[in-house]
## 1
Amino acid sequence: MPDAVELIRAKRDGQTLAAADIRWLIDAYTRGVVADEQMSAMAMAVFFRGLGPGELRTWTDAMVTSGQRLDLGSVSAPTVDKHSTGGVGDKVSLILAPLVASCGAAVPQLSGRGLGHTGGTLDKLEAIPGWRASLSAREFVELLTTVGCVICAAGEDLAPADRKLYALRDVTGTVESIPLIASSIMSKKIAERTRALVLDVKVGRGAFMRERGAARELAQTMVRLGTESGVRTTALLTAMDCPLGRAVGNAVEVEESVAVLRGDGPGDLVEVTLALAREMLALAGIDADPAAALADGRALTKYREMIAGQGGDPDASLPPARHIKEVPAEESGWLRDLDALAVGTAAWRLGAGRARKEDPVSAAAGVICLAKPGERVERGQPVLELRADDEARFGRAIEVLDGAIVIGTEPPTAGSAVLERIG
């Protein structure tokens, strides 16, 4: 039997762990044989020493085999999923899953909840009355077969090692490790058994990866893990210095997603969504134009079917905020920058996000970007609209927005929201 302390020492000292030792460690930690404090020490050792390609491949596979894998064998359409590393205003999944499904693919999307300044897909959809995030395996496959797309929470038995380790990393300062991020994301996606996967790796102030080089390394690592596991995998690096779209929150992001599906959404959000849709369809081997599916209403119809299939009412009114406060421009000129991290943190402080996983969130709270970089504003013109159920939250939200709005005499240089493809 391996000894946990000896394995910690070995990794601490930069040694390569044997495959059998890694498998024992992950299994023993999942079963509670290896204590949290020991796995915390191992996570910190990995944080500083990293994992070699072979170690990471074994580590990820051990996390996959710590639980059960989904059986999508009865789904006849080609399956393809997408994962985002998280950003501010990133409601792409709500549009993308029905859009790609309306073009003939099956999209089995297992999503999560928000933490800190980044929003969670499940929190957004739960703003819709009646919508259910938790589905049985039978319901999941049935909806995937009949509707073509599902967005729901991962089951308790899917990569349980990751669930334990993720919670541990969150409280031990080891979240930012590229091998641990990659294995966390990819273990769930590999266990999902989708045939193809597109990764949306966000880059910038409002993203988990602020530097492009680190984002590229993470993307390359995940693409390699997916490919080696038999999942056709590509990645796009997309910009996250400024909020994506104009809405940041839960209900407000659902409303903006529906606007895109109706053909009336912000250009940056449409650009990223269509780029990811084209990648997904190419990996699935489907020759279709997602822009046409948006234009002719097919994607909106599929969205309504997906929401109704999970118990939601696509025609229901979404919760309104009790209180609204505007943040005006302090001078006239061109809006040159709008800090995504500050806006996301403001939405969190207004009640749209959570500090801990068990915290409740407000469906109605959030921020509307009334102006985006590249637009002209006049002194006193509202740039942001803050929404909250409790007006006492406005003070701390406005605090974090100090310096977030940058106005100048010249417009900023326009750039694409899609930065790079890793394939």
## 2
Amino acid sequence: MKHARPTVLYAAAVRDAAGVDARPGAVLIQDGHVVAAGEPDSLPAELVEQAEVIDRPNDLLLPAMVNAHTHLDLTPVGPQPYDPAAGFVGWVKMVRSKESEAKKQWQTALPQAIEASQASGVQAAGDIGHPYEDGPIKRAARFLGSSYRELFGLGPPFDEQARLNIADASWPFAIQPHSPYSAGPDLYRLAATSGRPVSTHLAEHQEELDFVAKLSGPMFDYVRSLGRWDDAFAEHYGKGLTPVQWMRPHLEAAAPDGGWLVAHCNYVSDEDITILADTNTSVAYCPIASEYFEHENHRYRDMLEAGVNVCLGTDSIVGTDPDDPQPLGLLSAMRRLYERDQTNPATLLAMATRHGAKALRLKSSIATLQPGAPANFACIPIDSGSAIDPLEQALTGQAPIEAISLWHPPKQ
């Protein structure tokens, strides 16, 4: 097999969450994949001599990131204000009022959302969407990750189509029962035992807690107003359980296949964290979205300490800062956690890369600079002469990411 000419990418520093840490640093690429990374003198000399050179003397070079939880289908809606008086149910009504117009724009909006994600240094995503085909668009755009299809229905007959989708072996998507207040235990059971990647929204807001534990509150009233409630479902709720406790049997059922990816977990107890750790569950924390909904004191650090695989997501663009130049990227979330919580920079890098890849069941080399990794990179300007750690500089700066991709997927 004839190999393309290699490329060597020099930078002020190179870093990943799998052991590469060099200043200055370099990455050697051939055939769209990393061959080696580290100090420039450590790279194979015979390949470096043949290589084309890309020089980034004032940048920190990182592997491109993994957005573990996003709703690209809502990108046409754009950032919207949140009304605390209307609560989460009011927000849902607002978004639903805009969905039909967003769907009309989808054929052009999806490629644009993917391009914006990639330009923000994201190479893979756990994208939550509706059941219209977007897989070919994503493959054409060389975008990695999983397309989760949201499934709804608290029981027959409301979940009939969802059941058929799960049972259809040719159905090409990963599975996302939407949430315990919109998808019943039968859908969760079928999803957990399907062998597919599975995800859900869990413990996101107080309305969800009231629905599950008490069968009351604004979300319960809203579901009934939609005509999607039958009193026969009541036996599955109102037992005083938290959403994580309610879902425990389904978390346990999927654990041997790789576990669930659950989004948010804004409201969790000590017992909940133990359950998440014991069931191999990954948590996609979306800090910008959590703050948008006025949630405080997320326990992601307690989860990490307990062994939970916590990764980062953006949620939808609806809850982002209108002035953020890269709302579909993860750098803003990393910077927010570093500023607010002084979270270890290495931990934040792992959450944005390796942890997300694990949550999406991607190859272990994805989002690293290890041999065989896709040649997708995020470059962030730093002061190459400063004594401050390059990653810390990137997290305290304001410059956006510049993406570099030399990767090309294998031919099908």
## 3
Amino acid sequence: MPRESTRTRIARLKKIIAALDRAHPEAHCELHHADPLELLVATILSAQCTDKRVNLVTQELFKKYRSAADYANAPPVELEQAIRTTGFFRNKAKNIQACCRKLVEQHAGKVPQTMEALTHLDGVGRKTANVVLGNAFGINAGVVVDTHVARLSQRLGLTRQKTPEKIEQDLMALVPQKQWTLFSHWLIWHGRRRCAARNPDCANCEIQKLCPQIGVGKI
């Protein structure tokens, strides 16, 4: 694909955003949660795990653990068993407990509302912090880059970068800040429902004419 100027890419991106909004007007975070703490825990659990599986686990988990102190004081083996089916459960349980201890000790048990404070918590990187800030607090501090966002942003020719951090920087430079959280939802929904990694439904794709299809057929 020939290199686009930044102006041309932004103009194409505006059309992509409008089309994705029409195609997925209901796009939202699919991790079930009722408050910032539940979303924080669910996002930690979602690493290397589907949202569907996380939602099954948290259905019971959130009934048992209702505060940061509940997680911090839980017997480790008990918490491990409660989240076992999400995979990497020992490491996730360790991170959740350490994270919640800091919430109790440093934030009066509440989830902080800044990138700096969130990323100082155990098990919380930029991706998790962006999920919590954007969906629990309505703060557009960055763009969530999961596997779908990384794959589609490369396929759409919006970035040539490979790492989540660099992909996020490219997207933040192109997407209007007020749409950072929604843009992630649109790409995730489109990736799950239309643009699969191996067999994308290009024939019925709502943004086919705007997509250079980079990498399609090469997987």
